[in-house]
Amino acid sequence: MKISKLLSLAALALVVPSMVQAQDLMAREAKADFQLKSSNVVKIINQAKAHEEASYAKNIYGNHWNNDGVNVYKGMAKPEELVINLKDFSMPIKSRVVTSKYGYRPRFRRVHYGLDINGCTGDTIYAAFAGKVRVRKYDAKGFGYYIVLRHNNGLETVYGHLSKQLVNVNQEVKSGQPIGLCGNTGHSFGSHLHFETRVLGEAIDPALMFDIAAADVVADTYTYRSSGNHKAPAATVAEPVLAQAKSAQETAVVQPKAEKQAAKRTAAHSSKDKKHKVQKGETLYSIARKHNTTVAEICKRNRIKESSTLRLGQSLTVK
Description:
By secondary structure, the chain is of the alpha+beta class.
């Protein structure tokens, strides 16, 4: 074989691997460039979505940002209709047991503006949606340590009776982010989370939007209407979570007539005390829930303390 031909073959052997390596490098660079562009597109879409959601909330609340309390929207017009996106929902506490529902409480002659969800002191409390901390305060006669979050879907959520607050005013939070610890502070008779949902200060029954027992939403969206039957009198900044019954009745949270009459008949004919014999594993809290009363009421009737140890077979007056 001629020397010139041998040299040509040797040169080709060197060039081909180099060409392959160059092509591999170009392919990797093209892939990286595509991934970078894709990442930028996703980032732009997410930014546009966030801007759109923030604009949605701003259309409702405008520039009104007040850290003084729950309902600071007196005089502000409410939208006739508002579609609230619930897809980003996270359970505010891991417990799924509702111990007190929203609405008028005949026994206490007061309105309950949210749901009480069972919990132990120290249990983590989570943000129901992404949003911003508007209020971080202490109310000795009402919420105790509490937090109010404003969300881009138009809702504001309230978390009451906390033992500790983990976030600060004006802080941005994500859905499911820890914001506090469950407790028994303020006007409370046992550890639990008091959870409210509001639009411009107007309380809405959370059960219309969330199935706590299933840890899920009732539907992907909830349509708020300013003339809807979810309306309840909103407490002023200085008022505790539970308003007086008279005020509640004057502002449309009224017991049905038949229910009132039935309650009166029951009270008139209940001349004997109702007793309960303590069973294995029962606590004052579980007994109170079973008989639709409170721990404080049982303690008062039996002249015992919340910390008292129950005896198996012990007889308690519950009503």
